[in-house]
Automatic annotation (TrEMBL):
GO cellular component, one term: cytosol
Organism: Ethanoligenens harbinense (strain DSM 18485 / JCM 12961 / CGMCC 1.5033 / YUAN-3)
Protein's name according to its UniProt entry: Methylenetetrahydrofolate reductase
Reactions catalysed, as given in the entry: (6S)-5-methyl-5,6,7,8-tetrahydrofolate + NAD(+) = (6R)-5,10-methylene-5,6,7,8-tetrahydrofolate + NADH + H(+)
Gene3D superfamilies: 3.20.20.220
Record SUPFAM superfamilies: FAD-linked oxidoreductase
Enzyme class: oxidoreductase
Amino acid sequence: MKISTILQQDKIHVSCEIFPPKQSGKLQQTEEVVKELAAVHPDFISVTYGAGGSTKANTVRLADIVQKHGIPALAHLTCVSSTQEMVRDTLAELRQNHIENVLALRGDLPQDGNVPVQQQYRYASELVCEIRSQGDFCIGAACYPEGHVESTSREEDIAHLKEKVECGCDFLTTQMFFDNNVFYSFLYRILAKDIRVPVVAGVMPVTNARQIARICALSGAALPPRFSNMADRFANDPASMRQAGIAYATEQIIDLISNGVRAIHLYTMNQPDVALKIFENISEIIK
Ligand code: FAD
């Protein structure tokens, strides 16, 4: 089913994200993750795309596995290291596997020179146009409540977001954020620019203090004092950090839903136990 159709349903939507293994031999292990997640019926499961297309085949295969477990799949697709032919081949594979939802991304610019940057697509908006020209896909794209790390201002980032949406996005998923006020203010700012597609709020339960530095570097997410205090207090106590991280994400989600947000995306990656705990914590709220 198309995610645009799912998001129109009168309910609270909760989705999850998983990543494919680099080696095909490990797909079976990841299928176990899908099975566990499918048991709590997320509205959809998104499958990431390795930097530079490193997991291309497994992204499609894993998205197919997700759908075979009865859950709509959202296949991520990046373009900065792809030619038009590569993109069109991947879209054809997705179509063959009846995967109709694609998250159109630029991808991070490679730092190490191992992955080539092709000249064909510079921005995700160009990929959105390409996907639109290749059939009846439901297209999602990324957005950044705190501004994308490369953009000089939030205003400039929102102007580019508007161009991307106008190329044909059906919905947006946010980068993770740890302060809901940042998200609420973003919603007002995009509405002021007449960006009206549904926005899925990305929440990451941080269950391991070692994740934090990497998260901040990649996403530029600001850490509110309440979050930093928690991380400092439990950094060396993994069991407590896990419990506190899940509680923090649960509170964030309850606040979002209380304020009228209707779609939440859990960045629980391949940790079904964390996703399941959060689903349990909010089971009455989303039923
Ligand atoms: P864009 O929308 O192209 O934006 C990138 C930058 O370019 C922004 O600063 C924007 O303001 C600027 N820009 C856009 N258009 C123009 C223009 N016309 N002129 C000048 N500047 C412009 N990465 C992966 O490798 N695999 C994944 O599976 C993956 N999944 C993700 C899922 C989500 C929900 C999110 C939020 C991110 C994901 N990423 C993933 C990371 C993403 O690839 C990076 O954040 C990347 O740096 C930007 O991708 P984008 O699609 O947002 O790019």
